[in-house]
Amino acid sequence: MMPAPRPVLTGAREQVHSLRYKGPRSGPPRSRHERDDGPRYKPGDPIKETGIYEVIHDRDHRTAHEAVMLANDKFPACDSCFERVRFRLVRTAPYIFDDADFES
User: Fold this and answer.
1) For site-directed labelling of 68, which of 5, 31, 47, 76 has its Cα 20 to 30 A away?
2) How many domains does the chain have?
3) Residue 99 three-state SS
4) Is 76 inside any structural domain?
């Protein structure tokens, strides 16, 4: 039994489909910390938004992990890979004690 042919998409449906489907990926899949999901920050850069950041260490040191960073601080250097660590914003998240209901 042969599979049914794919329907032909036209107009807006075709545009939505083309935005979602990017076709088969060439090359090996990229790991989570190799994606290009926005700017990367380095030690000493000011933290502009409080939130959860992906911490991307030098390859030989450790795998990427997430950490909370507070606005108005500076991104820190790593004790092991020093200035080679990078940070990427995953999502903003307000600091609980900056919320009016939780201020002391």
Assistant:
1) 31
2) 1
3) coil
4) yes
The Cα–Cα gap between 100 and 54 comes to 28
**Single-letter residue type at 71:** A
Sheet holding 65-69, edge to edge: 65-69, 51-56, 86-92
Going from the C-alpha of 4 to that of each of 18, 20, 89, the distances in angstroms are 20, 21, 43
Look up the domain containing 94 and give its range: 39-104
Examine residue 77 and state whether it is found in any structural domain, yes or no.
yes
Overall pTM > 0.85: no
How far apart are alpha carbons 71 and 91 in whole angstroms?
Answer: 13
The answer to whether position 90 is within a domain reads: yes
Q: Is residue 84 part of a domain?
A: yes
- Please name the residues in contact with 45: beta carbons below 8 A apart, sequence gap of 6 or more: 74, 75, 87
Q: Please report the beta strands in 28-79, taking only residues with DSSP state E, as ranges in sequence order.
A: 51-56, 65-69
Residue 4 pLDDT grade (very low, low, confident, very high; cuts 50, 70, 90)? low
State the residue for tokens 């108005």. Answer: 72
